[in-house]
Protein backbone atom coordinates (compact mmCIF):
# COMPACT_ATOMS: atom_id res chain seq x y z
CA UNK A 1 0.00 0.00 0.00
CA UNK A 2 1.40 3.38 -0.96
CA UNK A 3 0.54 6.52 1.01
CA UNK A 4 -2.45 8.48 -0.29
CA UNK A 5 -1.70 11.60 -2.35
CA UNK A 6 -3.75 14.69 -1.44
CA UNK A 7 -4.80 16.95 -4.28
CA UNK A 8 -3.84 20.04 -2.26
CA UNK A 9 -0.24 18.82 -2.36
CA UNK A 10 -0.40 18.86 -6.17
CA UNK A 11 -1.52 22.52 -6.15
CA UNK A 12 -4.99 21.50 -7.37
CA UNK A 13 -8.45 22.64 -6.26
CA UNK A 14 -11.85 20.98 -6.25
CA UNK A 15 -14.61 22.37 -8.50
CA UNK A 16 -16.69 24.13 -5.83
CA UNK A 17 -15.44 27.73 -6.24
CA UNK A 18 -14.87 27.29 -9.97
CA UNK A 19 -18.54 26.49 -10.47
CA UNK A 20 -19.72 29.32 -8.20
CA UNK A 21 -17.74 31.80 -10.32
CA UNK A 22 -18.94 30.20 -13.55
CA UNK A 23 -22.56 30.46 -12.42
CA UNK A 24 -22.18 34.11 -11.38
CA UNK A 25 -20.10 35.06 -14.42
CA UNK A 26 -22.28 33.22 -16.95
CA UNK A 27 -19.50 31.11 -18.43
CA UNK A 28 -18.56 27.43 -18.29
CA UNK A 29 -15.32 25.88 -17.05
CA UNK A 30 -13.68 23.74 -19.76
CA UNK A 31 -13.04 20.08 -18.99
CA UNK A 32 -10.50 18.81 -21.51
CA UNK A 33 -9.64 15.10 -21.63
CA UNK A 34 -6.06 13.91 -21.94
CA UNK A 35 -4.10 10.65 -22.16
CA UNK A 36 -0.51 11.76 -22.72
CA UNK A 37 2.11 14.41 -22.02
CA UNK A 38 1.53 16.50 -25.14
CA UNK A 39 -2.21 16.79 -24.53
CA UNK A 40 -1.63 17.67 -20.87
CA UNK A 41 0.97 20.32 -21.77
CA UNK A 42 -1.34 21.80 -24.40
CA UNK A 43 -4.31 22.00 -22.02
CA UNK A 44 -2.49 23.73 -19.18
CA UNK A 45 -0.60 26.02 -21.57
CA UNK A 46 -3.73 26.99 -23.55
CA UNK A 47 -5.65 27.69 -20.35
CA UNK A 48 -2.77 29.55 -18.66
CA UNK A 49 -2.34 31.72 -21.77
CA UNK A 50 -6.04 32.52 -21.78
CA UNK A 51 -6.29 33.00 -17.98
CA UNK A 52 -9.00 30.36 -17.80
CA UNK A 53 -9.77 27.95 -14.96
CA UNK A 54 -9.47 24.36 -16.17
CA UNK A 55 -10.56 20.84 -15.31
CA UNK A 56 -8.02 18.22 -16.42
CA UNK A 57 -10.19 15.25 -17.23
CA UNK A 58 -9.11 11.59 -17.27
CA UNK A 59 -11.29 8.58 -18.08
CA UNK A 60 -10.64 5.23 -16.40
CA UNK A 61 -9.03 3.89 -19.57
CA UNK A 62 -6.96 7.06 -20.07
CA UNK A 63 -5.66 6.66 -16.52
CA UNK A 64 -4.70 3.06 -17.25
CA UNK A 65 -3.03 4.15 -20.50
CA UNK A 66 -0.92 6.84 -18.82
CA UNK A 67 -0.44 4.63 -15.74
CA UNK A 68 -2.32 5.28 -12.48
CA UNK A 69 0.91 5.69 -10.49
CA UNK A 70 2.42 8.11 -12.99
CA UNK A 71 -0.77 10.19 -13.38
CA UNK A 72 -0.53 12.45 -10.27
CA UNK A 73 3.15 13.05 -10.94
CA UNK A 74 2.46 14.06 -14.55
CA UNK A 75 -0.17 16.49 -13.35
CA UNK A 76 2.06 17.87 -10.61
CA UNK A 77 4.71 18.56 -13.25
CA UNK A 78 2.22 20.24 -15.59
CA UNK A 79 0.95 22.49 -12.80
CA UNK A 80 4.51 23.38 -11.78
CA UNK A 81 5.29 24.23 -15.41
CA UNK A 82 2.55 26.87 -15.68
CA UNK A 83 3.18 28.20 -12.16
CA UNK A 84 6.81 28.76 -13.13
CA UNK A 85 5.55 30.78 -16.09
CA UNK A 86 3.61 32.95 -13.60
CA UNK A 87 0.08 31.57 -14.03
CA UNK A 88 -2.25 31.31 -11.03
CA UNK A 89 -5.21 29.66 -12.81
CA UNK A 90 -7.25 27.21 -10.71
CA UNK A 91 -6.70 23.63 -11.90
CA UNK A 92 -8.77 20.56 -10.99
CA UNK A 93 -8.02 16.91 -11.78
CA UNK A 94 -11.23 15.02 -12.48
CA UNK A 95 -12.13 11.37 -13.09
CA UNK A 96 -14.41 11.17 -16.14
CA UNK A 97 -17.17 8.51 -16.23
CA UNK A 98 -16.06 6.65 -13.12
CA UNK A 99 -17.89 3.32 -13.13
CA UNK A 100 -17.35 1.98 -9.62
CA UNK A 101 -16.86 3.08 -6.03
CA UNK A 102 -13.45 1.36 -6.04
CA UNK A 103 -12.19 3.35 -9.05
CA UNK A 104 -13.49 6.65 -7.63
CA UNK A 105 -11.84 5.93 -4.25
CA UNK A 106 -8.57 4.96 -5.90
CA UNK A 107 -8.56 8.29 -7.79
CA UNK A 108 -9.46 10.27 -4.66
CA UNK A 109 -6.59 8.53 -2.84
CA UNK A 110 -4.15 9.36 -5.63
CA UNK A 111 -4.52 13.10 -6.08
CA UNK A 112 -7.82 13.66 -7.93
CA UNK A 113 -9.73 16.70 -6.67
CA UNK A 114 -13.01 15.78 -8.35
CA UNK A 115 -14.66 12.57 -9.57
CA UNK A 116 -17.61 11.66 -11.73
CA UNK A 117 -19.57 8.58 -10.80
CA UNK A 118 -21.62 7.61 -13.83
CA UNK A 119 -24.60 5.55 -12.76
CA UNK A 120 -26.74 6.85 -15.61
CA UNK A 121 -27.24 3.35 -17.05
CA UNK A 122 -28.58 2.05 -13.71
CA UNK A 123 -32.08 2.32 -12.26
CA UNK A 124 -32.75 5.60 -10.42
CA UNK A 125 -32.47 3.85 -7.04
CA UNK A 126 -29.21 2.08 -7.94
CA UNK A 127 -27.77 5.29 -9.36
CA UNK A 128 -28.64 7.12 -6.12
CA UNK A 129 -27.08 4.36 -4.00
CA UNK A 130 -23.79 4.28 -5.96
CA UNK A 131 -23.51 8.07 -6.24
CA UNK A 132 -24.17 8.58 -2.53
CA UNK A 133 -21.55 5.97 -1.62
CA UNK A 134 -18.96 7.94 -3.63
CA UNK A 135 -20.12 11.32 -2.28
CA UNK A 136 -19.90 10.10 1.32
CA UNK A 137 -16.25 9.13 0.87
CA UNK A 138 -15.25 12.01 -1.44
CA UNK A 139 -16.58 14.70 0.89
CA UNK A 140 -14.49 13.44 3.80
CA UNK A 141 -11.48 14.22 1.57
CA UNK A 142 -12.73 17.58 0.25
CA UNK A 143 -13.26 16.09 -3.23
CA UNK A 144 -16.26 17.18 -5.33
CA UNK A 145 -18.53 14.70 -7.12
CA UNK A 146 -20.41 14.83 -10.44
CA UNK A 147 -23.38 12.51 -10.92
CA UNK A 148 -25.39 11.84 -14.08
CA UNK A 149 -29.06 11.42 -14.94
CA UNK A 150 -30.15 10.60 -18.49
CA UNK A 151 -28.20 8.75 -21.17
CA UNK A 152 -26.15 10.24 -24.02
CA UNK A 153 -25.86 8.44 -27.32
CA UNK A 154 -22.43 7.74 -28.77
CA UNK A 155 -19.59 5.29 -28.48
CA UNK A 156 -16.19 5.65 -26.89
CA UNK A 157 -13.94 3.17 -25.13
CA UNK A 158 -15.84 2.99 -21.89
CA UNK A 159 -18.94 4.97 -22.71
CA UNK A 160 -21.33 3.43 -25.14
CA UNK A 161 -25.00 3.67 -25.89
CA UNK A 162 -26.90 3.18 -29.14
CA UNK A 163 -29.56 5.70 -28.26
CA UNK A 164 -29.98 8.60 -25.87
CA UNK A 165 -32.75 9.31 -23.45
CA UNK A 166 -33.13 12.80 -22.16
CA UNK A 167 -32.84 13.64 -18.47
CA UNK A 168 -36.25 13.68 -16.77
CA UNK A 169 -36.49 17.06 -14.99
CA UNK A 170 -38.89 15.61 -12.41
CA UNK A 171 -36.05 13.35 -11.12
CA UNK A 172 -33.26 15.88 -10.62
CA UNK A 173 -34.25 17.38 -7.27
CA UNK A 174 -34.65 14.03 -5.54
CA UNK A 175 -31.37 12.80 -7.05
CA UNK A 176 -29.39 15.78 -5.78
CA UNK A 177 -31.04 15.74 -2.36
CA UNK A 178 -30.56 12.00 -1.85
CA UNK A 179 -26.96 11.83 -3.12
CA UNK A 180 -25.42 15.15 -2.07
CA UNK A 181 -23.66 15.31 -5.48
CA UNK A 182 -21.99 18.67 -6.20
CA UNK A 183 -22.92 18.83 -9.90
CA UNK A 184 -25.10 16.93 -12.34
CA UNK A 185 -24.45 15.83 -15.93
CA UNK A 186 -27.60 15.87 -18.01
CA UNK A 187 -28.69 14.60 -21.42
CA UNK A 188 -30.24 17.27 -23.65
CA UNK A 189 -29.13 16.12 -27.10
CA UNK A 190 -25.32 16.11 -27.00
CA UNK A 191 -23.52 12.83 -27.61
CA UNK A 192 -20.03 11.34 -27.32
CA UNK A 193 -17.60 10.97 -30.21
CA UNK A 194 -17.14 12.60 -33.62
CA UNK A 195 -20.38 11.40 -35.25
CA UNK A 196 -23.09 13.01 -33.17
CA UNK A 197 -25.92 13.16 -35.68
CA UNK A 198 -26.88 11.32 -38.86
CA UNK A 199 -27.63 14.23 -41.20
CA UNK A 200 -28.86 14.22 -44.77
CA UNK A 201 -26.87 16.44 -47.19
CA UNK A 202 -27.47 20.12 -46.38
CA UNK A 203 -29.28 19.30 -43.11
CA UNK A 204 -28.31 21.21 -39.92
CA UNK A 205 -27.81 19.50 -36.53
CA UNK A 206 -30.96 19.57 -34.39
CA UNK A 207 -31.09 22.11 -31.54
CA UNK A 208 -30.18 21.00 -28.04
CA UNK A 209 -33.24 20.66 -25.76
CA UNK A 210 -32.94 24.02 -24.00
CA UNK A 211 -36.50 23.54 -22.73
CA UNK A 212 -35.32 20.58 -20.62
CA UNK A 213 -32.29 22.54 -19.40
CA UNK A 214 -34.53 25.44 -18.36
CA UNK A 215 -36.89 23.17 -16.48
CA UNK A 216 -33.94 21.63 -14.64
CA UNK A 217 -32.64 25.11 -13.77
CA UNK A 218 -36.02 26.01 -12.32
CA UNK A 219 -36.07 22.90 -10.18
CA UNK A 220 -32.44 23.33 -9.02
CA UNK A 221 -31.80 27.07 -8.83
CA UNK A 222 -28.09 27.94 -8.74
CA UNK A 223 -27.01 24.30 -9.06
CA UNK A 224 -24.09 23.43 -11.41
CA UNK A 225 -25.03 21.48 -14.53
CA UNK A 226 -22.55 19.61 -16.75
CA UNK A 227 -22.65 18.95 -20.49
CA UNK A 228 -20.86 15.89 -21.85
CA UNK A 229 -20.38 15.12 -25.52
CA UNK A 230 -19.89 18.79 -26.34
CA UNK A 231 -17.26 18.74 -29.08
CA UNK A 232 -18.09 20.84 -32.15
CA UNK A 233 -16.12 18.59 -34.57
CA UNK A 234 -14.31 21.25 -36.62
CA UNK A 235 -15.03 20.75 -40.37
CA UNK A 236 -11.51 22.05 -41.07
CA UNK A 237 -9.90 19.29 -38.98
CA UNK A 238 -12.18 16.64 -40.48
CA UNK A 239 -11.32 17.88 -44.00
CA UNK A 240 -7.59 17.79 -43.17
CA UNK A 241 -7.87 14.25 -41.82
CA UNK A 242 -9.68 13.11 -44.97
CA UNK A 243 -7.28 15.02 -47.25
CA UNK A 244 -4.23 13.33 -45.72
CA UNK A 245 -5.37 9.73 -45.90
CA UNK A 246 -7.99 9.48 -43.15
CA UNK A 247 -11.58 8.39 -43.46
CA UNK A 248 -13.95 10.37 -41.27
CA UNK A 249 -16.94 10.88 -43.48
CA UNK A 250 -20.10 12.34 -41.92
CA UNK A 251 -18.42 13.47 -38.71
CA UNK A 252 -20.50 16.25 -37.12
CA UNK A 253 -20.68 17.95 -33.72
CA UNK A 254 -22.54 20.50 -31.58
CA UNK A 255 -22.62 24.00 -33.13
CA UNK A 256 -20.53 26.50 -31.13
CA UNK A 257 -23.40 28.99 -30.76
CA UNK A 258 -25.49 26.41 -28.92
CA UNK A 259 -22.65 25.70 -26.52
CA UNK A 260 -22.17 29.45 -25.99
CA UNK A 261 -25.85 29.72 -25.09
CA UNK A 262 -25.56 26.76 -22.69
CA UNK A 263 -22.44 28.26 -21.06
CA UNK A 264 -24.42 31.39 -20.16
CA UNK A 265 -26.97 29.25 -18.26
CA UNK A 266 -26.53 26.92 -15.27
CA UNK A 267 -24.15 24.81 -17.37
CA UNK A 268 -20.88 25.32 -15.45
CA UNK A 269 -18.74 22.56 -17.03
CA UNK A 270 -18.43 21.59 -20.68
CA UNK A 271 -16.59 18.38 -21.65
CA UNK A 272 -14.39 18.32 -24.73
CA UNK A 273 -12.37 15.32 -25.84
CA UNK A 274 -13.08 14.53 -29.51
CA UNK A 275 -12.16 18.04 -30.73
CA UNK A 276 -8.69 17.69 -29.23
CA UNK A 277 -8.24 14.23 -30.73
CA UNK A 278 -9.26 15.51 -34.16
CA UNK A 279 -6.95 18.54 -33.99
CA UNK A 280 -3.91 16.41 -33.15
CA UNK A 281 -4.75 13.68 -35.67
CA UNK A 282 -5.23 16.22 -38.47
CA UNK A 283 -1.79 17.77 -37.91
CA UNK A 284 -0.01 14.44 -37.45
CA UNK A 285 -1.52 13.12 -40.71
CA UNK A 286 -0.41 16.29 -42.53
CA UNK A 287 3.17 15.95 -41.28
CA UNK A 288 3.32 12.26 -42.21
CA UNK A 289 1.89 12.95 -45.64
CA UNK A 290 4.12 15.93 -46.42
CA UNK A 291 7.29 14.56 -44.78
CA UNK A 292 7.19 10.78 -45.21
CA UNK A 293 10.81 10.43 -44.12
CA UNK A 294 10.12 12.05 -40.72
CA UNK A 295 10.41 9.74 -37.74
CA UNK A 296 11.27 12.01 -34.82
CA UNK A 297 8.15 12.09 -32.57
CA UNK A 298 8.87 15.72 -31.66
CA UNK A 299 8.42 16.68 -35.32
CA UNK A 300 4.83 15.44 -35.42
CA UNK A 301 3.72 15.60 -31.78
CA UNK A 302 5.13 19.14 -31.40
CA UNK A 303 2.98 20.68 -34.18
CA UNK A 304 0.01 18.62 -32.96
CA UNK A 305 0.48 20.09 -29.48
CA UNK A 306 0.62 23.62 -30.95
CA UNK A 307 -2.64 23.00 -32.82
CA UNK A 308 -4.29 21.83 -29.59
CA UNK A 309 -3.10 24.96 -27.75
CA UNK A 310 -4.73 27.14 -30.46
CA UNK A 311 -7.96 25.15 -30.31
CA UNK A 312 -8.14 25.47 -26.53
CA UNK A 313 -7.51 29.21 -26.55
CA UNK A 314 -10.20 29.68 -29.19
CA UNK A 315 -12.72 27.55 -27.24
CA UNK A 316 -12.06 29.34 -23.95
CA UNK A 317 -12.49 32.76 -25.58
CA UNK A 318 -15.30 32.17 -28.05
CA UNK A 319 -17.29 29.16 -26.81
CA UNK A 320 -16.95 28.62 -23.05
CA UNK A 321 -16.45 32.29 -22.22
CA UNK A 322 -13.89 31.23 -19.58
CA UNK A 323 -10.93 33.24 -20.92
CA UNK A 324 -9.91 35.97 -18.49
CA UNK A 325 -12.19 34.50 -15.78
CA UNK A 326 -9.66 32.91 -13.45
O1 LIG B 1 -16.53 10.48 -22.63
C1 LIG B 1 -15.48 9.84 -22.60
C2 LIG B 1 -14.20 10.47 -22.97
O2 LIG B 1 -14.25 11.07 -24.23
C3 LIG B 1 -13.02 9.56 -22.84
O3 LIG B 1 -13.18 8.35 -23.44
O4 LIG B 1 -12.62 6.09 -22.52
O5 LIG B 1 -11.91 6.76 -24.84
O6 LIG B 1 -10.80 7.75 -22.83
P1 LIG B 1 -12.06 7.16 -23.41
P1 LIG C 1 -16.87 14.64 -26.89
O1 LIG C 1 -16.74 13.26 -27.47
O2 LIG C 1 -18.00 15.38 -27.55
O3 LIG C 1 -15.61 15.41 -26.92
O4 LIG C 1 -17.31 14.48 -25.35
C1 LIG C 1 -16.35 14.25 -24.36
C2 LIG C 1 -16.94 13.88 -23.05
O5 LIG C 1 -18.12 14.02 -22.78
C3 LIG C 1 -16.03 13.36 -22.03
O6 LIG C 1 -16.70 12.92 -20.89
ZN1 LIG D 1 -18.66 12.13 -21.26
Automatic annotation (TrEMBL):
Pfam families in UniProt: F_bP_aldolase
Residues binding Zn(2+) 2: 118, 148
Residues reported in the UniProt entry to bind Zn(2+) 1: 97, 192, 228
Key words, A-Z: Lyase, Metal-binding, Zinc
Keyword Metal-binding: yes
Record's cofactor remark: Binds 2 Zn(2+) ions per subunit. One is catalytic and the other provides a structural contribution.
Gene3D superfamilies for the chain: Aldolase class I
GO MF terms, alphabetically ordered: fructose-bisphosphate aldolase activity; zinc ion binding
Enzyme Commission identifier(s): 4.1.2.13
Source taxon at top rank: Bacteria
SUPFAM superfamilies: Aldolase
InterPro entries: Aldolase_TIM, Class_II_FBP_aldolase, FBA_II, Fruc_bis_ald_class-2
Gene Ontology BP terms: fructose 1,6-bisphosphate metabolic process; glycolytic process
Cofactor(s) needed for function: Zn(2+)
Catalytic site positions: 96
Listed PANTHER family: D-TAGATOSE-1,6-BISPHOSPHATE ALDOLASE (PTHR30304), D-TAGATOSE-1,6-BISPHOSPHATE ALDOLASE SUBUNIT GATY-RELATED (PTHR30304:SF0)
Protein name per UniProt: Fba2
Amino acid sequence: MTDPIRYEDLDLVNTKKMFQKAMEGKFAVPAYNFNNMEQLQAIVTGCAESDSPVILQVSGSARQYADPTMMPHMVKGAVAMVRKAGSKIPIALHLDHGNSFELAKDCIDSGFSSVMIDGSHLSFEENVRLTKEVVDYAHTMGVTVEGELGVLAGVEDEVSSETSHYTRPEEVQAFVEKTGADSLAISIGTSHGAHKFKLKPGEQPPSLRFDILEEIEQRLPGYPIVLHGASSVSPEHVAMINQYGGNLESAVGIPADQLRRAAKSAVCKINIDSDGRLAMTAVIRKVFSESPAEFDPRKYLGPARDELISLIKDKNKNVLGSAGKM
